[in-house]
Every structure is written in structure tokens, then in C-alpha cells.
Amino acid sequence: MSNKSSEPAVVDLLRKLNRNLEVVSKKLDKLIEVERSGTRFSRPSVEVPEGTPLDVTTLLSLPDHLRKSALALSSLGEGTATDLSKETSRVRAVESDYLNQLVSMGLIKKKRKGRDVYFYIE
Amino acid sequence: MAFHSYKGGTGKTSLVVNLGALYAKQGANVCILDYDFRAPSLNVLFKAKPKLWLNDYLDGRCEINDTIVDESTKYDLRGKLWVGFANPSLEALKDVMSKDRRWEVKALSKTLAGKKEIIEEKKVDYVIFDTSPGAQYSSINALAGADLVSLVMKADEFDLEGTKELSKGVYEALGRKSGVVLNKIPLEQIAASGGKEKFGKEIEANVGLPLVGLIPCMCELMAAGGKSIYTLDKPDHAFSRAIGEIADAMKVM
Predict the structure, then answer these.
(1) What does pLDDT average to over chain A?
(2) Residue A54 maps to which CATH number?
(3) How many angstroms separate the Cα of B31 from the Cα of each of B34, B85, B217?
(4) Do residues A69 and A104 share a domain?
């Protein structure tokens, strides 16, 4: 005799497992991207004298990944890491790391507005 | 898109105006911006005396859409042709020369934001920057604001070497899709290389950028001295046909 009454429960459980696996897979993708970028916990790779303005000559001296973030911020004026990640098509965590590198280089600034952190060029 | 060159006198302005006019004639909405703040010339061709200049926008005195002038009514166009002019007065030229790096930071931001505002408010299909030659702040700001860059050159040794440097140091660094337009090329130079195609491939290999178009030297254009928009006034002229080829090539870059 087949246990037909337990089939829907099994299917439901399998669907839940599948959803959880998709979430884990997305998180793994993000971790892999951060790992490949090699900059999650790294210092900025370019030394910039204090007070250097973020004009095009400075932009051209930046490594590609930081230049992309800097140009996107120049275009928006100010924005959160989420706003910038939409411009650069990068994952938010990666974009946040790059923006914080630019802050530590003194090229851009950040401020808190409520719960959000906004990056801007002075 | 932005048109740039290593040296002056390569014919950028003429290319920009004729290309922009052609796109507008074909039905697109176009905005040309004169970003050659050190030697503005679009105001001469269009005989314009705008109330506000692009200089005013970059100095924060107005919005960018306050500076652009609708030139469409002067011509028989299916689309719109807007133009933003740079101030040619001596006072403005001296002011441009005095700008510091802090101002240039804001100018870059305003260039990037201004392009977006023009596209959104005026429903423009193409924004075309005409730039100063060489490594000027305003030119590189325009290149940073463009999706496509066309480098205009005359294929002499001075141009070739300088263009290679620009290609490596600026265009590649900015990550913009770039191509070369060879302009004012003597017919003898083309013939000596074995024809247009071979000549074009030689330059491509030398500069490391794909060829977008090749325009032979045409004395009657130089004699006309920027008084006429050939793609509107003389659509069957060889120059207009060459511009047509460049227009098609840039649509698929």
C-alpha cells in the first residue's frame, strides 16, 4: 500500500530544501566574488598624498576597480553602497569595500543619515 | 559619444557638427556640447548668442538645460538638434585657464550629471561632446562622460605617437569603447599603402584601436571654412557619404 498521504508533505519539504539551497548558493557566489577581488580586507593599493582632489588626473591614477567606484560616485554626487552598486553592477558588499578604500585614501567622505551611510565627494 | 584628438586641426568640430546634424536628419534627438573651452567654435557655425553658456553651468550659475539651444528650426530635420555652447569671450578663456583642481572635481561631477539631465529632460538619443585636443581637464571630463570615444587623427607621425600614448594612458584607463577616425588623409598616402582598406588596417595595428572611418583630404571643405553643414546642404558629397558611414559604424560600436 503506498503512503499517498505523506507525499504532499515530502514535496513541500523538498521545495523548502530547494529554496534554502538557492539562498546558500547565492551567498557562496557573493563570497567567491569577494575572494576573487582579493580586496575584502586589503589596504588600498595606491598611495595618494593627503588632500589630493578626486579630479580626472587622480581618477586615471587609480586601479580599475577603484576608478569605477569613483566615477560612479562622481556621477551621482552622493549615494549609499547600494546606490553605487546599482551603477557599477557589482555586489553591494564588494562596492562597500571599494568605497571604504577610497575613504581611507582621503579621496571621498562618508556620513550617516539615519541608518544609512552615504558616500560623497567634498 | 565624445570626439577627441591628440593634436588640433584634425577636423573634430566639423565631424561632430555634420554627424550630429545627420543623426537629427535621420530622426534622432541630438545634443552637441562644445567642450572645447579653450577655443570654442560652435557659436560661429551656428551664429549663436545664447543667454547662458556651458561655462555658466559648470560654475554653478544655472542648470545644464538652461544652456542648450534648439537649433532644429534652422534646418529641415526629422529629429531635434540641441547645442550647448562654450563662451568664446577673452574673459571666459582667461577664467578657464585659472581654474584649480578643486573646481575640476566639481566640473567632472557636473559633466556626468549634466549629460544624464539632458537625456532625461530633452529625451535625447545622442549627446555628442566636441573637445579640446590633448590632455585638457575638460576633454578628459567629457571622455569620462561618454560611452563611446572617437579619436580623430591625421595619420602623420606626430599624431600617431601621441595618439598611442593617449590610447594607453587615457582611453584604456577610462574603459570606454574607442575607435579611430582618420581625417584629412592625402590620397597619395592612401594609394602608397595599397588602398583604403590596407591603409586603415595599418593604422589600426599601429594605434591599437578599431577604425571607425576614413575621410580623404578634400580641399573644398577647407575652403568652405566651416560655413556649411555638408550632411544637410550637400548630402551627396563624398564627405557627407563618409560621415554617413561613420554614423552607421558608431551605432554598432
Answers:
(1) 84
(2) 1.10.10.10
(3) 10, 11, 27
(4) yes
Q: Which residues of B touch A57 (CB under 8 A)?
A: 101, 137, 140
| Domain region containing A3 | 1-37
Q: State the smallest CA–CA distance between residue A21 and chain B in angstroms.
A: 37
**Closest partner CB to A74 (pick from B101, B108, B174):** B108
CATH topology of domain B2-251: Rossmann fold (3.40.50)
A67 lies in the same domain as A30: no
Q: Are residues A31 and A49 in the same domain?
A: no
Residue A28: pLDDT above 70? Answer: yes
Provide the whole-model pTM: 0.84
Q: Are residues A48 and A28 in the same domain?
A: no
Is this prediction's ipTM beyond 0.85?
Answer: no
Which of B58, B99, B109 is the best mutation test for A, with the most CBs of A within 10 A?
B109
Residue B169: other Cβ atoms inside 10 A: 12
Q: How far apart are CA B23 and CA B125, in angstroms?
A: 9
| Same domain? A51 vs A12 | no
- pLDDT-based confidence at residue A8 (cuts at 50, 70, 90): confident
A121 interface with B at CB cutoff 8 Å: yes
Number of domains in chain A: 2
- Is there a single domain that holds both residue A68 and residue A31? no
